[in-house]
Amino acid sequence: MTLLSVNVNKVAVLRNSRGGAGPDVRAAALAVLAAGAGGITVHPRPDQRHIRPGDVDALADLVRGRAEFNIEGNPFAPPRGDYPGLLALAERTRPDQVTLVPDGDGQLTSDHGFDLRRDAARLRPLIQELHAAGARVSLFVDAGAAALELAAEAGADRIELYTGPYADAFAAGAPGPMLAACVDTATQARALGLGVNAGHDLSQANLAAFARAVAPAEVSIGHALISEALYDGLDATVRAYLRILAGD
Q1: Looking at the domain that runs over 3-245, which CATH code has it been given?
Q2: Which entry of 43, 68, 218, 228 is annotated as an active-site residue?
C-alpha cells in the first residue's frame, strides 16, 4: 500500500503565529503516527516561516525507529542565521529520505519541479552527499517533465510528482489530461528504475482517483490533511486517508 507521510509544517505555522510553544509539532507527529501514518515530512526553509531547524532535530529523534522521516528542501539555498542548509540538516539528523525541491523565498509554496536539463549536473554531487548521509533521495518534478533520464543519471532514487496542477484540474471537474500526464511520467520513471512519490494539494476528495491510477510508493500530504483535521481531528483524518489509500 502507498505510504502516507504527513507534513506537519502547518502545525508550526500556527505555533509561530503566536510566538510560543503551542501547538507542539512533536505532539502532532505522535498523534498522526498513532493513527497509522507511515511517515512524517517537514520542509524547513531558510526564512524559518514554519518548521525550524530545532524542530527538525526534535522530530528526527522522535520519529526514528517509529516511521519514515522525510526532509524536503532546496539544496541550493545557502545557510542563513540558524538555518544551516539542507545538507547540513540531513547530515546531523540522518533522515530516511530527502526530497529536493527548487523553491525560493518568494514562493508561498512549492509550485514547480526541477528543470532537469538545467539542474541535473549540479544536483549530482549533492545527491552523492545525501546518499553518504544514509538518505534516499527524491527529486520534485512536474508531470510531463522533460529529460527524466537525467534524474536517474544524477543518482536520484525516486521522483516526487508535483500534483498541484492535477488537484486544480480535479477541482475544475476535468482531471483526465493531468492525471494521464502523471501516469505517463510515473511509467517513464519506473522504466528508468526510479520510484515514484507524489505530493502537493492532494486531499480526501482527489486522492483516490490519483492513487488508483498512479500507485505511488508514497504520498506526502500536509495542507489539506491539517485543514481537514480542524473539523474531524488528526486521528480520524489520518485514518480516513489510510482507508482511501487501501482502496476502501
Answers
A1: 3.20.20.70
A2: 43
